[in-house]
Amino acid sequence: MAVVEVRGLTKRFDGTGAAAVDGIDIASRDGEFLVLLGPSGCGKTTLLRMIGGLEPPTAGDILIGGRVVTDLPPRARQIAMVFQSYALYPHMSVKDNIAFPLKAANMPKAAQQERIAWAAGILGIDHLLGRKPRQLSGGQRQRVALARALVREPNVFLLDEPLSNLDAQRRASARDELQQFQRRVATTTIYVTHDQVEAMGMGDRIAVMEQGHIRQLGPPQEIYDEPADTFVATFVGSPPMNLVPDPAAGDLLGFRPEHFQPAAADGVNGAARFPFHVHRMEYLGAERLLYGEVGEAKVIARFPVTVPIPVEPGATAEFAVPLRHLKRFDAKTGLRRPARSVS
Amino acid sequence: MAAPVYQAPPMPTDAEIARDVRREKRGRIGGRGALYLAATAFALFAALPFAWMLLTVFKQNSDLYDPNLNPFLYNDPPTLQNIGYLFAQTEYATFIRNTLLVAVLVVVITLLAAVPAAYSLTRLAGRWGESLGIAIFLVYLVPPTLLFIPLSRVVADLGLRNSVWSLVVVYPSFTIPFCTWLLMGFFKSIPWDIEEQAMIDGYSRIGAIWRTVLPISIPGLLTVVVFSFALTMHEFVYALAFVTSSAQKTVSIGVTTELIRGDVYFWQSLMAAAALVAIPIALLYNAFLDRFIAGFTMGAVKG
């Protein structure tokens, strides 16, 4: 168990061009499930690979458990990593796969057996030990990869989109298992994903990354409710936060689709009102989405099926957002402005 | 012009369906039959020289050279004399020893050079690796019948003229390029993740290669071994050009120079010499046939 910290970490490929990771400072907490979330190409995997020692940084330092490991090879870092592909050794049985890091550490045979049984037990793969990786399903492969990561009790788990090879149904249960597993072993975990559902559902904290920078670091609820800038606001949440220009202040007003509701007839105070021109309704089972415009800006409103929709596509209606759900962003920098009243 | 009206074809009757099924089955049986016939013909064609060789080994002169006798039968009782002659009157045992020495050393040298070369070209040389690999492969295409002229100078400068060691030096010049290219195809098909995982799991890069890349590439390595070994066994031009004394000859030139004297061919002993070498190699090939084919097709598709 250990804290992972990076200081001013930078990576440039080929020595030229934009930095894939641009001077990042971030520190995990001990035993934390920290998610690096961002679109593809934002540098999240590069950051993870640098922490793992697979990619030498251009500048900056990496500390694991207070020790500078920047120039140490992966094997000297006491970490475990699960790749997107799981990277099981195809020529070895499941048992040998799990034993591999133990053999590398020259653990005595008897102790190895004990550890393998322990890890296999935690992940429920005792019955698969004799199989070869090609005889396993996607979910089983993932568990074997986790068992192999777990078996030598590393300081840190590094997980690189470990769920992206599973089908949608299996992914939901795998999310649950993975989180329970992490809680149980309480090992600091850094988890890379582009899937906000995974990030929101599993992370103790989320670091939202874009173009080599961390845009915001915080618990899921804070990321969702109080986005630090327009990138975070529109990247997290599905559908994303609506952004509407405020002509009076020259700012952007942001609000979540679920907070954009028909204005009460009597005009309650404490809500910002917008004329909403509806184009289209999308029926999604548990909820419906209304697509339309406020002025020039495209806006989405979300309704649970239990709520009747008072407006037809093609019509314009008065919609409102409670002021406490209205976020204000600088139109130029995209950064969040401190809250102030809107009339 | 009236548009053609689409008419659905009439539904087939049960009898028609049954007839079609019969036809299909007959067609399939016919196809299979033709396939086996062709395969048998090819097998006979390929086996005939081998059978002829084995047949000839045990024939007496009086049997072999009488055109009135049926050449496919033993008209005189079979004899082991020819094999005896091979070992008693020629230095066949020495030839075999030389050949094995050269073959084993060439295989070892080829592996030692081609494995690191192929690995670094696929993993470390970046985008130039592929082109370099092809360039190296092209070297293999220069025919030995041209190369032996400059190489004879090299051999002379090394002081290896008329020595079996000249072949140990020369043969890798064509086994290494081909095998490097072959192994590149293998290494390319192994995901980086697996090596990186091994490095995370506690090994150095060399350790990771040793424990993951090489075991996964065993079909490729076997192909390299068999290919280099067989090529060395049957190579003729260099052996003829660089080695003249009997004690230094390999099988391929030894028997042809010692058992063809002027226009006199010692057919039975020649055949015996060939058979004694060919049979073990054939068995070796067969033992690894599947992997061998996998090796070549993998190289072909992915290289």
From TrEMBL, chain B:
Cellular compartments annotated: Cell membrane
Q: Which UniProt keywords apply?
A: Cell membrane, Membrane, Transmembrane, Transmembrane helix, Transport
**Gene3D superfamilies membership:** MetI-like
Which domain of life, per UniProt?
Bacteria
State the GO CC annotations: plasma membrane
Tell me the Gene Ontology biological-process terms attached to this UniProt entry: transmembrane transport
One Pfam entry for this protein is: BPD_transp_1
Q: Which residues form the ABC transmembrane type-1 domain?
A: 96-289
InterPro entries reported in the protein's UniProt record: BP-dep_ABC_trans_perm (IPR050901), MetI-like (IPR000515), MetI-like_sf (IPR035906)
Q: How does it sit in the membrane?
A: Multi-pass membrane protein
Q: Where are the transmembrane segments?
A: 33-55, 100-119, 131-152, 164-187, 208-231, 265-288
* Primary localization: membrane
The record's listing under PANTHER family reads: INNER MEMBRANE ABC TRANSPORTER PERMEASE PROTEIN YCJP (PTHR32243:SF18), MALTOSE TRANSPORT SYSTEM PERMEASE-RELATED (PTHR32243)
Q: Which family does it belong to?
A: Belongs to the binding-protein-dependent transport system permease family.
Its name, as the record gives it, is: ABC transporter, permease protein 2 (Cluster 1, maltose/g3p/polyamine/iron)
